[in-house]
């Protein structure tokens, strides 16, 4: 793990009293880094660690405003993760291109910037001032980096005093940026581990372990607020033939294509899971059985009418068997709901395949479908 840079000689810059002046710099240094180190080791919550860092910046450097900007790697932009002080709320939707402005330059080069007078610096641009309606006179910005990788920028506005910005304060700010980098990387690492535990590698959908957690949450929520929700089981028909004919790699790509197609045709509020093998499950919150049957029929037609693995030149056609069950009409427990949806799917699979059935209703006809989801 990356270690923070050492800082020598931390003390308050604003008229410390005699008692404060007498306090050894080393004691102040130890107190600050002990507190930050404790925050890092005692909490994996990013917000808590960044709050501690923010407090130390305010305590020692007293800027008018300060911000933590993080890198959006996909868009190559900086966005304001935290902003304090005047006009902070206006910065919520502001984005800065990497290389643009002083913060963008710091993110691009990995070098700190101390600008006593922004009017004399060609890198400065006033988009942020226009948003916040404040006047930026000086800027101090340091990169937040982890193993030579840019994560963001800490930027302080209007904290350069008449005697300039002291080297020991820049060293403190760089040390705080190192702590921020460790906290951000730790939080991202924990998030990646969490995603791996709930995500299916092949399809990118949620896995069956996460299905059980979501069902528990939906049952609790639906019971409390009097909602319905529905479950759809999907089993691909004769999927083994794809593996036997085209190989297991093609079979895995087909599962991924179908899984993503199912997800793309559901609402943002819905959940899509790979249950195992060639089975998928959809959880549709606040959805009646009637509407869930409409969704099932629509997705059934989509799978049957789509030509899959076109990019591989295989042009696979496949069908699927669907089963639908709903809470609380069909079942009031997780296990019973799963059982009934699975049972409805097997009613199709063990007879004609390529169809939709619902708990208590049997196989459905086109005329039985309600309006689309």
Brief sketch in words of this structure:
The chain has 373 residues and is of the alpha+beta class.
Rg estimate, integer Å? 29 Å
Q: What are the low-pLDDT stretches, counting only 5+ consecutive residues below 50?
A: 1-22, 367-373
Q: Based on the structure, what is the oligomeric state of the protein chains?
A: single chain
Q: Give the neighbour order of strands across the main sheet.
A: 3-2-1-6-5-4
- Note the beta-strand portion: 15-25%
Order of helices and strands: HHHEEEHEHEEHHEHHEEHEHEE
Distance between the termini: 49 Å
Kindly state the number of beta strands.
12
Structural class: alpha+beta
User: What's the story with the biggest beta sheet?
Assistant: 6 strands, antiparallel
How many helical stretches?
11
Morphology: elongated
Helix content: 40-55%
Mean pLDDT over the residues: 85
What does it look like?
The protein has 373 residues and is an alpha+beta fold. It contains eleven helices and twelve strands. It has helices at residues 18-22, 25-42, 46-61, 101-109, 127-132, 167-198, 208-225, 239-246, 248-264, 289-305, 334-349, and strands at residues 65-72, 77-84, 95-97, 113-115, 139-146, 149-157, 229-236, 271-276, 279-285, 320-327, 356-358, 362-363. The chain has a six-stranded antiparallel β-sheet, sandwiched between helices. Strands 8-9-7-10-11-12 form a six-stranded mixed β-sheet, with helices on both faces. Helix 2 (25-42) packs antiparallel against helix 3 (46-61), helix 3 packs antiparallel against helix 6 (167-198) and helix 8 crosses helix 9.
